[in-house]
Amino acid sequence: MSDIENPTGDTRPIGVFDSGLGGLTVARAIATVLPRESVYYFGDTKRCPYGTRTEDEVRSFALQAGRWLSKHDVKIMVIACNTATAVCAESLRAELSMPVVGIEPAVLPGARTTRTGIIGVMATTKTLASAKYRHLKSIAPKEVRIIDCPCPGLMDCVEAGEFRTPHTMALLREYVESLVEAGADTLVLGCTHYPMLAAAIRLTAGPGIRLIDPAPAVARQLKRRLDEPGLLNDTKKAPARIFCTTDANEARERILRLLWTDNAVLQKLDGSVRP
Ligand code: DGL
Question: How far is Cα 220 from Cα 23, in angstroms, rounded to an integer?
């Protein structure tokens, strides 16, 4: 009997949600750690950035996304958005019947990595202002200095596919140079969009600066969460990877092809299926 005739585990997809396409950096790590798993991606590109929204808006949009993913029979939801995790991970866990995994700035791994004892955390203003983030800092080693670096405009550069334009580089100089000048040797990428700017950030920061992207750790945690209750997909059937957004354009299609494969397709949700 083949694996397909006798499936074991749970073949339902993993739901990945972000305000935009930043969550693709997390989806990519998930596909590396869990190559057999199908992924259903939902990016709320029409309403991003969430970083400038009110908490009520972020909560309501994220809940809509969770319900939409739930309707598409995902077995678990990954909030591939630091801002939404900071604002409403608990609400999503309370409201949705599926398990929910979030993401947070890698402050503790950053604190373990630094040699100068100074780390910079690049994230949205909303993430940095959240109680969740304040708690994270309160449990970090006291001898490590943590410099918060809100980065307005940076996620918009990514969504526009502007990974290294003069405007993006000017913003990065403004944000990154001050961190390096203050002695930070470790930069925590606390927004899932920023790993797409890793090359430009390195260029701006100069040699010897370490960037920390929590996506691989989230993917490993997800694997454990699925493994314990027997929710991993044990079949050898090729996984499906579906990418849906509430808005699409040429730049976003290019970003998807860049992060995924040349033949990946961005499906724009029409009004009837939009959450
Ligand atoms: N990718 C989201 C995050 O990790 C971007 C936030 C936004 O939409 O402003 O925070």
Answer: 16
